[in-house]
Amino acid sequence: MWHEAVDADFIVRVFAVVIVAEKHTFQMLTKRPGRMHSMLASGQFWGLVRATLPDYGPPSPAAEAAVDARFLPNLWLGVSVESQKWAFRLDKLAATTAGAVRFASCEPLLGELDLRPWLGSGLDWVIAGGESGPKSRPAHPDWVRSLRDQCQMSGVPYFFKLLCTIEVLGGECAVPIAAYSRRLLARAA
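The structure assignment produced for this chain is given below.
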């Protein structure tokens, strides 16, 4: 959604829908936190969102208050951080306060990752997982355990999806990997 080719009017309309659909929780994940941050920090953007709200029905007082506060309690904003090389993306996410939850999606996890500078100070949730599919790149169990431990020490929720390291299963990445992943993580606990 935050790609430069996506028209700003489309993003305004998406935010209007998020605001009026107060009972739903929306997650927006990007590899482009710079555009996300600059748009959400813009008074002009929020003015356009306010002007668009009536297109989706009469806005509630809570919806109007959300626009005024530039804070959407039903919005989670996240960035993809596959390895330390991409951790800089978290700086813009941490500075973006429009969403109730800011999260890192560390999937596919492709290398060691130190999230401690952002945990507890701008990062509310971490999701991690390996890559799946016939040409998946391996995720090392130590990387997964390290993220889990960092999150535990910081009191930040951690959700681990899947360790899908093809070498571990002799070239197979199928249903048994979920049980294997649980055993692997439990060993370090």
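Interim note for the steering committee: Residues 173-177 have pLDDT under 50 and may be disordered. The two ends are 38 Å apart (CA to CA).
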